[in-house]
Specification:
The protein is an all-alpha fold. It contains 5 helices and no strands. Helix 4 packs antiparallel against helix 5. The protein is globular and about 50 Å long.
């Protein structure tokens, strides 16, 4: 872990989080047929991003045990997760939320730790199903459900 890189990244993520919060306030607060408006998710995401970036910045300042250490950057997992994110974005509308989120999470989990594929399957399936149920059924929001061919 490069602490200098982490400091710079935390400031960049702080700026992005603040921009998400500001941008979400310019979206309409409700959408037709939905109790949850399109402004809620970007606002919550911005708040989480700001809080996590503040925590990361604090940790890089207070942790002095790794001064001068340099670890190698892992490019392969970065590009795998980046490609998975791009595929997720491009296929979300056509394939549906549940399938694309499940596959995206499974690929990301396996990229980070290959040996635990059963727990990756369970967590990815549970997360995508529970989030879909909570957002669509409980909050009465809309997400792309299943592919057209189902």
């Amino acid at each position: 872990m490069s602490y200098n890189f982490d400091r710079i990244a935390s400031v960049a993520f702080l700026a992005v989080g603040v921009l998400f919060i500001i941008g979400s306030k310019q979206l309409s607060s409700t959408s037709y047929g939905s109790v949850v408006g399109p402004d809620i998710f970007p606002f919550v995401l911005g708040v989480f991003l700001v809080l996590l970036s503040i925590r990361l910045f604090y940790e890089t300042i207070t942790d002095s045990s790794h001064k001068g250490e340099k670890e190698s950057l892992q490019y392969k997992p970065f590009f795998i997760i980046g490609a998975a994110t791009l595929v997720y974005i491009l296929t979300l509308e056509t394939v549906g939320y549940i399938i694309t989120t499940f596959l995206f999470l499974f690929v990301c989990f396996q990229t980070m730790e290959r040996s635990k594929w059963i727990s990756s399957l369970i967590i990815a399936a549970g997360f995508s199903g529970i989030v879909y149920f909570l957002f669509v059924e409980v909050l009465k929001g809309t997400l792309p459900g299943w592919p057209i061919w189902f």
